[in-house]
Amino acid sequence: MMKIAVVILNWNGSDLLRKFLPSVVQFSLDADIYVADNASTDNSIAVLETDFPSVKIIHNERNFGFATGYNQALKKVDADIFVLLNSDVEVTQNWLKPIIAEFENNPNTAIIQPKILDQKNKEYFEYAGAAGGFIDQYGYPFCRGRLFDTIEKDQKQYQDDCEIFWASGACLFIRASVYNELGGLDDDFFAHQEEIDLCWRAFNAGYQAKYVAHSTVYHVGGATLQQGNPRKTYLNFRNSLYMLLKNLPASKLLPVIFLRLVLDGIAGIQFILQGKITHCMAIVNAHFSFYGAFSKNFKKRKGPQSSKYYKVNSIVYKYFWQKRRNFTELF
To answer: For position 221, what pLDDT does the model report?
Structure first.
């Protein structure tokens, strides 16, 4: 039987632990549960020790962020399957069983995401992962059930298990052997899109990511860093460029990155027109960081890079020009 470890990264999230950890403990009897604490300064540790004695605590030395926080913690976890679970996720009864079955029945399945619904509005998909993620030719992510800010209602339209390109870091299952083979998450990302980069590297290495529809979790989203935070804008734009440089096939590297620079410039202008100057500056700073780390990230390229990484040429064109708002309208 596979050994499963559910690992929740925490930083000053005692309220989230009190609210959401009970469902994880109740419905994860087949797994070991860990909380990897990024040197919290609130009462998180006391809450864990008092209210959740069965949960194992991993003490990280400082706030490493998402990527390094997990990399440090998972070195101390002995399991066949790692479950990276956000602290603001409510799980459901039998959420583990269909996913474990997929891993057992399909050896090439390396990464799995369950159905992710909105914890605040449970009839709708949640932004972070919905029913599984994809990217377009230019690296813009989208999901079955979520295109940009348009969220679909869950009407059982995505009840089929299927191959996806990326799984959300809000609830990501990965074989420990593959995680270690790939070197884990990229420490330089800190947070945001590191899971897409991980899945892209797994894809280039010949592994599959899957969406398993009969496992459901509910995610709050934005509990750590709100959508309107310029820091989030900076990390998303910077990390997206990092990811492209690392993983694009050589034939697409220069043209795709050039077009992304143009499109990012347009996004910056839109922020100015909306009066969001700090977000425009976040994009500018993201680009300077990208240029500064160009050589370092270029050296991370590992071939061969597959040219079949994208599902549509341009989600920006499909969404903003052709006004296609649902995933099924893209094709």
So the answer is: 79
Stretches in the chain below the pLDDT threshold 50: none
CA atoms 291, 294, 297, 301: torsion sign: positive
What would the DSSP string read from start to end of 149-187? TEE-B-SSTT-S-EEESB--TTEEEEEHHHHHHTTSS-G
Residue 137 shares a structural domain with residue 247: no
Q: Does 323 map to a domain? A: no
Question: Nearest to residue 88, comparing CAs of 8, 143, 142, 146?
Answer: 8
In a domain, 249, yes or no: yes
**319 domain residue, yes or no:** no
Output the CA angle 217-218-219, nearest 5 degrees: 120
> Strand, helix or coil at 105?
helix
pLDDT for the residue numbered 39 = 96
Give the pLDDT score at 222. 61
**How do residues 279-302 score in pLDDT, each as one tens digit?**
999 999 999 999 999 999 999 999
Same domain, 174 and 210: yes
State the CB neighbour count (10 A cutoff) for residue 101.
13
- Per-residue tokens: 58: 């991993």
What SS3 state is found at 291?
helix
Has this prediction a pTM greater than 0.70? yes
- Nearest of 187, 190, 142 to residue 313 by alpha carbon: 142
Q: Residue 208 is encoded by which pair of tokens? A: 């599959």
Alpha carbons 289 and 100: distance in angstroms, whole number: 40
- Here the tokens at position 95 are 């959420």
Query: What's residue 242's pLDDT?
Result: 97
